[in-house]
Each structure stands twice: as structure tokens, then as C-alpha cells.
Amino acid sequence: MKKIYTLALILFASLSFGQTLLYESFDYSVPGNIGGNTTTSSDAVGANNWLTHSNTSGNSGTIDLASGSLSYTGLMAPVGNKVTIVGNNTTVPRDVNRAFTTTTTATTIYYSLLLKVVDNTQLAASDAYFFGIGGAAGTSVTSLGARLGIKSSNSGANFRLSIQNNSGGTPTFTENATDLTFGTTYLVVVKFDKGVTPNAASLWVNPTGLGGTEPTANATNNSGNASLSAFASVYIRNASGTPKAELDEIRVGETWAAVTAVPLAIDQNNIVGLDIFSKNGVLTVTTPTLSEKEVAIYDLLGKQVKNTTTQNNTVNVADLTSGIYIIKVSENGQSATRKLLLN
């Protein structure tokens, strides 16, 4: 039987209240790579949770890990490392994907990433896509939606990002009409909605409303007439026109808040007289009132691991593994949060 030993206020904890399907911080050893280094056209073994689904036979070029992280003001602090794509599809023609929990019922999905384009290497005057959502995962990923595109602008002095919903028919890209700067880290958020016909993809660059209400998109595209039957993976694509860039802090979720995780101040307590303690795998939450309480528990990646209501003030937490968690308690329109260590 597990026990919770510490329930204490702290100043801040990184958390986003939403359904997170994937958080990829590239917390792997350097030197290393993602997707593997085989010379075959695909690689079912891969490396560091990523598999190769497309490669030029005989080529061993890799998508390498690099030390350090990209960061963005207002977003939760990064962990781990980052990956680099070299901007040369002759040297590295490898396309890789990472699976997340496949969902066929959700009609809308979001992803976000931190992106720093190093320079104008290989960028063209027309759009090329290099990241998106896969309708499958593994060694065969052919349904590629929510395509994040890039092109050179101002005669190579800048670049622009764009979005395309899917490949059906003769689709075009819709640009974010802002020239972006090489060497700068941008927060990119994409939404894909397969619940409308045709499917729609929306793009935000450095958006407002992190962790809160979804703002108006910078660009939306529904030019393709294909459809994804499921959401199963994120992919990185190396091809003609794709950038020389660093990528980090990839998130996939079913809500805006899930992919725009912000530091949450957890020293606020709007529930007067709240007391939380535990013993023998049972969390007890008491207040002066006898009202029903909603108790949500999140891990530090923002994934909700338990959500329940209690009238008798107790929650069974014996099934949770050891680690640090955030508890959010809601009662009569008020809420409070606590950080706990579960041993």
C-alpha cells in the first residue's frame, strides 16, 4: 500500500489542465538520435520512442539529439534536450514518427512545438511541410494531416510558416502573413478538426491565451479533400524545401490548454479551512462544509491521472505510482491546489 508523505504549498508548479496525449521533451542521452540509423526504407526498432517510416535505401543519415532545450516565455519550463533537422534531404532523407494513444472518437486535436529555424538552408519560395499529425503510427504512415509548412521570404532574409489540412485533391497552403526571423524560438500551435467537411487545420504563431481560451487563428486551411480516420502519431519530415532547424517541447492534446501548458501558481487557496492529508493509500480532503468536492490529480507533465468527486472527503490513491503530483480541489465554485509527493 502506497503512502503520501508530503502535502505542502509551493510557489509554482508547471501544469496544464487538459487532456494531454503526448509530451515529448527529448529527455534522452546525447549523443543520440530519434528514429534510428538503419539504411533500410523503414525501421521498426527506431530509437528513443521514434520509428522511421520513410528513408532512402542505403542512407544512414539521422535526426540527431542536441544538448540543451528551447524555451518560450510564458510556457512551462522545458526539460531534456532538443532535436535538429539538418535542412539537407540528400544527407538526411529520413522521416520519423512517434505514436501516442490512438483516438478515433475525438474529432479535434491540437499539437504545439518550439521551433528555431537556424538559417535559409534549403528553404524555397514555395511551401514545404515538415511536421504534422499521422493517421497511423509505425513503419507505414501515409495519412499525413495538419501539415506545418515553411517557405523563404524577402529574398531569403526571412521565412514564413503555413498550414495545409491534408493531401487530398490539389491542396494549397495558407500562410501566416508574418515574416519570421532566423535564430529566434517560436511557439507554434496547430489545430486539426476532422469533424467538419472538408477537414480544417488552423495555425497560431506565438499566440496569446496560453493555458486559457483559444484565440483566433493566424491562418486556417481546408483545401484538401481527404480525411484522417484516426489520430495516432506526430511526424517529422525531411524533404526538398524543409528547414535547417531545432525542434523541442512537442505536445499533443485534445484541448488548447493541454498544448499551451503554463506555470500554475499553486499557493493560492480559495477554499477556506481546506485540509489535506493521507494515510495508507487514502487521500482525505476536508473543509468546514459538507459539500461535494471534485478532486483532480495531475502529473507534472500536465496529464490528468485521476478525477473524481467525493462526498465523504476521501479518495483512493493507492493505484498511483510514486512521484510528485498536483491536486486540484473544487468546491462550491472555489478551487485550491496542492503539490504532493507520493512514495
Automatic annotation (TrEMBL):
Domain Secretion system C-terminal sorting: 280-341
Signal sequence annotation: 1-18
Keywords: Signal
Any Pfam family: Por_Secre_tail
InterPro entries: Secre_tail
NCBIfam families for the chain: Por_Secre_tail
Protein name: Putative outer membrane protein
Phylogenetic classification of the source organism: Bacteria, Pseudomonadati, Bacteroidota, Flavobacteriia, Flavobacteriales
